[in-house]
Each structure stands twice: as structure tokens, then as C-alpha cells.
Amino acid sequence: MDNWVNILAYSLGFAVGNVMGSIIESKMAIGTITVRIVPKKTCDEELAEKLRGMGFGVTMIEGIGKNGPVCMLDTTLHRKELHVLMDYIKKTDAEAFVTVSDARETRGGYMRSVKRK
After folding, report:
1. CA-CA distance, 98 to 82, in Å (whole number)?
2. Where are the beta strands (DSSP E) in the chain?
3. pLDDT digits 0-9 by tens, 25-54
4. Under a CB-based contact definition with an 8 Å cutoff, are residues 93 and 47 in contact?
5. Number of structural domains, the chain?
6. pTM reported for the whole predicted model
7. How far apart are CA 98 and CA 58, in angstroms?
8. Closest Cα partner for 108 from 74, 76, 84?
């Protein structure tokens, strides 16, 4: 620890390992996530039905936001399917507020199966 070259080499190796691990993990996309969508419309039942038609399980939750009533759409899905959901939301409601969080454990409910090639 008294040689600055060793410290620099360790730091660079640690940083590169973290970056490479993140890249590999994002490519593998293993696990489940929860996506919460707050559409621009107050209560967009049409969007919920379209997402259900695409095979996603959707739960509608009514709430009160800063500017009045809001309707949140919650769905839990496989990480590999996130791009499908996000692309559709961008096309249909570009101003929707969307959060994505990791779902460490799930039980029950509806989740469609990922088709294997």
C-alpha cells in the first residue's frame, strides 16, 4: 500500500470490473422487475387494457398527486421484456411518468412466460 502504482492499478482494476459486471448483467437481463406507470391522462383504462392485451398483468391504483387524482399502473415482468413495454409506452404516452425497480421476490399473480427460441 505504500506504492502509488499498486494503488492506481488496484483502483483501475476495481473500476473496470464494476463496469464490465454491469454491462454483462444488463445483457443477461435475469430476474424480475416492477414497472409503475403514471399516465398523463388521469385514469387511462385504455392503456391498461392494451398492456393486458400484450400479455402483461396490470394493476390499476388510484391516488392523489400534486395536481389532483392520478391513476398508477403497476406491472411485474421479466427484465428481458422491459424494452417491449418501454417502447410501447413511448409510442402511446411519451409524457407518462415511469419508474422501474428490482423485484427481489415475487409470488402469485400473473406473469407471462418468456418464449424460448
Report:
1. 12
2. 32-38, 59-65, 68-78, 97-103
3. 777 777 889 999 999 877 778 889 999 999
4. yes
5. 2
6. 0.72
7. 14
8. 76
